[in-house]
Amino acid sequence: MKLLAWGACLIVIASCGGGAAKPDAGDVLPDGVVALDGPLVDAAPDQPDPEGFVATGDGWGAPNDSIAVEADGTLRIVGGAAQDPDAAIRLQTTRLAFAGNTITSAPTTISLIDNTQLVLHRPDVDERLTENEDGLHQEWEFAAPITTDIVVEVTATGADQISQDDGGVFITSETRAGVHYGTATWVDNAGVRTPITTEVIGATLRMTVPAAVAAASAYPAKLDPTLGAETVMDTAVNGPSGALSQMPAVAYSGSNFLVVWRDDRNGRNSDIYAMRVSTAGAVLNGAAFAISTSAGVQSNPTVAFVNGNYLVAWEDFKLPAADADIRAARVTTGGTVTQLGVVAATTAAETKPKLGVRGTAAMLVYEQAGAVRGSVYNGTTFGATFAIAAAGTTPAVAANPAGDYLVAFADTTDVKGQRVSSAGALVGAAFPVSAAAGVQSEPTVTFGGSNFVVAFTSASNIFGTRVSTAGVVLDTRTENAVVVGGISLVTAASVQQRPSLVCGTECLLVWQDRRNSATYFDVYSKVLTTALAGVSAETVVASAGGVQGQFEPVAVLAGTAYLTVWRDQRDAGAGYVYSTRISSAGAALDAGGVLLARGANRQSSPRAARNSNRWLLVWGDSRVAGDDIHAARVRNGGSILTAMTVSSATQQQQQPGTSWDGSNHIVAWSDARNGNYDIYAARVNTSDLTLDAAGILITNAANDQFLNDVESGGNRTLIVWQDRRGTTGFDVYGAILNTTGGIAVAPFAIAAATGDQNAASVAFDTTNNVFVVVWQDSRAGANERDIYAARVSTTGTVLDANGVLVSAATSSQLTPDIAFGNGRFMAVWDDRRNGNADIYGARLRISGGALLVDDAAGIQYTANTAKQTAPVVAFTSQNNNASGFVTAWSDERNLAATGTDIYGNIINSTTGAILAGGASGFVISTNAGDEGNPAICAGNRGNTARALVSYQRFFAGSTMRVVSRRLLYTEI
After folding, report:
1. What b/e sequence results for 388-427 when a residue is b if at least 16 CB atoms lie within 10 Å of its CB, and e otherwise?
2. Which residue, 165, 296, 499, 785, is most buried by CB atoms nearer than 10 A?
3. Would you call 710 exposed, middle or buried from its count of C-beta atoms within 10 A (0-12, 13-18, 19+)?
């Protein structure tokens, strides 16, 4: 009988026995007897891991002390590389009741046997903890016959949530390790196995062996439960967050700056983050701090310094509500945040807030369903909202310190103004600031000593005008014999937009500018007099250097100098918020800018490959600006042996893939060092040395190429990617490497039909010595994507020139993955034929020199009404016996409670039927925080076949990290 168990993040859960009644021949069932993988001591990089306990100051553990046994018998599970005992989940046997006895005390003695077993002795029962390569196996042994119920209770401390399903109990925490405590099994001395239900009572897990079962058992007997630990890939590094940061705003307190922005580091929902910056341009806190991380999307922040504190307002889009509200918070100069709650909320959407300061008070203006409204802030609270304009968008506001506010806004094709008193009353009627030909938009307004100053865009250039405190437009021009408001401020080639203007004794204008097509959008600045006469030349504040661009600049006055902030995509990936000081002469003082959107580095796009003894796990990592490719060698026991950098070239390296070619691991990735994304690769040997430090250039064809997959076979490695060099969209290309890192076959087209061919995956047929590539294909229409496949020889010949149709069901089939084993391929994909996203698959085989599809209609592998997406598949076997395909996917069934999760099942490699998990699948991970983008890699060792599942997980208040779990088969 084959049994399945599932593991925890990099700490392995191993199978130790059966957990269900005897199944039919050939069945694969979730293993009810699962063990916690404790710390492992590694002898050599590619030798079996020795097992054992070592004595510590407070009990027994391992050198990294990720799992320890304390002196009173408590199991201590610590996640992450820091291994802080205070950040642990603890499990302790707190009650044993049988034969009229109740034991609640700690063990009387603890014995260490052969360094691999700890025996916790209590009267008439021993708790045995056995350390082996696949885990820490816990059991309670009862020597004397018992005819009553047997109750074992284990209490968990340090957990935030305890949940339960058919796979067992999940004990989770946002800041500590996560533990999986599987289904218990009663095993008597004759080998009779009885599954035992685990009850969750608060923080206590209760297992009860019924009296009838106990009385009928042959003794000595034991109760054999399952448990497992979780840890993240490594310690987070403070640096670029790796997430999109955009829409910056900035305010000055008189001594320091507060910069705020919209930040996506926490997953599907955007939040508001901030950084304090000194007048010397240095960041004042190591990582950005949150202003708001509530559910939904927080966006478009604005900030001002009012009455001794910073005031921040933003639009808050609450799900599932269909509109945004305006919320606000007060922030001290030291960074303490106090929420002020909802400022404006109706059934319509309130968006695009802006603040203007007048002494110890301020005015908030915002857009509401095509109208402009406002609210006065008295230094402590906001007043009632009021109408400013019945029609208007993108409002801006500034104050005359001794008089009224001026609100500037776009109205269809013009820019208009409206004066508002300090009490919130309209002063006079709205008036045109500029009614020139074409569209005037994006107004910005400031106060310049004796007049308001308004800048705006018109005909892709920037214009401006002074407006008197009485509402008179002072700077005009004649256009087609008509006098209109505004004079030219910037009239360079191409596009100038998103102006920001701030004035003191002089004014600074900053904007995004596309005059240099080689560098896309840059940020420019220009110093003006308060009468809008030029003082300085137009100066480049920030330039992309030919990769992406700089956008959304905003400036603030600080004495006689300025600070400007902007969204910067210099590294071709997620935009970051940068800043620089600008002198009174308009010169940028901080060369290159200062990165503000700092936090825990983001790990993404994990992939793994296995040699005969270990896994190599690779991912994209944002610990420096411009992601790099990092890797870790993972032991058989699941813990990290070594970590390394595979590529740290300039710009961004992302989306890696890897395979073992018999001599080295081949790692390939998407690389932006040359301006567009290209494909590079490198070899990593078994000593964890990158043999090609500069990378092997696979292709730098025109436009972008994005890596899809890597697979080795026959001493050749096929690298496949989606390629945009053509004129019909993406095509699938490939290249073949030899074992010395040379390009054996130069890039060639695998699929280049009309429409897009992308999201390719590849597997190798060891029987026929040929690769098979699958991909999603839109040749039938952009809204009707299908799955195609083709054979590719080891010499680079595409044997199915037009592709073989795998699935053309209604709607779309997306993101396929493929694996080979037991003479067949298994392709799986995200299928939309039922109106939502399900996982379907089909078996493929090569026969008679042709690629055949055994399941033309596809086999449905999930039936949940929620979305299941991003499937992956791998083949696993035990000594070439009892094989199966193991799948994993991203699952939204628990979206409201835990976000997206990872589920999986096992498929019979011969029939295609589900062997384990059923159509619901079994849980791989249901931790709080979105988990997605799974990858799977299989291998076997001795009598145990295993797969490593890696995926991205969002940790609340942190960022996205790569974690892993193992799936195990065991022959019983």
Report:
1. bbeebbbbbbbbbeebbbbbbbbbeebbbbbbbebebebe
2. 785
3. buried
- Measured CA to CA, the distance from residue 130 to residue 112 in angstroms comes to 10
Q: What is the pLDDT of residue 198?
A: 86
Q: For position 163, what pLDDT does the model report?
A: 77
Q: Return the CA Rg of the chain.
A: 32
d(CA 172, CA 899): 14
Which residues lie across from 634 on neighbouring strands?
615, 640
Please state, in angstroms and as integers, the Cα–Cα distance from residue 692 to each residue in 679, 684, 689, 875, following that order.
14, 8, 9, 30
Cα–chain center distance at 353 = 29
**CA–CA separation, 134 and 119 (whole Å):** 19
Residue 947 is predicted with a pLDDT of 79
What share of residues in the chain are helix, strand, coil (percent, to 5)? Answer: 0, 60, 40
Q: How far is CA 858 from the centre of its chain?
A: 31
- Here the contacts of 318-325 (C-beta below 8 Å, separation 24 or greater) are 318/294, 319/269, 319/295, 321/296, 323/347, 323/348, 323/349, 323/350, 324/297, 324/299, 324/349, 324/350, 324/351, 325/350
263: DSSP letter: E
Residue 511: strand pairing partners: 524
Determine contact, residues 780/766, Cβ cutoff 8 Å. no
The secondary element (H helix, E strand) that includes residue 896 is helix 895-898
- Residue 310 phi, psi (nearest 5): -80, 140
Contacts of residue 216, defined as CB under 8 A and 6 or more positions apart, other chains included, come to none
Decide if 906 contacts 886 (C-beta within 8 A). Answer: yes
Cα–Cα distance, 644 to 635 (Å, whole number): 15
Low-confidence spans in the chain with pLDDT less than 50: 1-50, 63-65, 80-83, 134, 225-231, 880, 942-943, 970-972
Beta-bridge mates of residue 723: 705, 731
Gap between the Cα atoms of 920 and 922, Å rounded: 7
Largest Cα–Cα separation, the chain: 109
**Burial grade of 558 (CB within 10 A; 0-12, 13-18, 19 or more):** buried
SS3 897: helix
SS3 call for 205: strand
CA separation for the pair 711, 969 (Å, rounded) = 24
Q: Is the peptide bond before 195 cis (omega within 30 degrees of 0)?
A: no
In a 13 Å sphere around the CA of 200, the CA atoms on its Cβ side amount to 16
Task: Measure the CA–CA gap between 555 and 248, rounded to whole angstroms.
Answer: 10
Please answer whether residues 152 and 96 qualify as being in contact, where contact means their C-beta atoms are separated by less than 8 angstroms.
Answer: yes
Pairwise CA distance, residues 508 & 527, whole Å: 5
Give the torsion through C-alpha atoms of 666, 667, 673, 674, to 10 deg: 50
pLDDT at 677: 93
Contacts of 764 (CB under 8 A, 6+ apart): 711, 712, 713, 714, 718, 770, 771, 772, 820
Instruction: Provide the total of helices (H) and of strands (E) in the chain, helices listed first.
Output: 2, 84
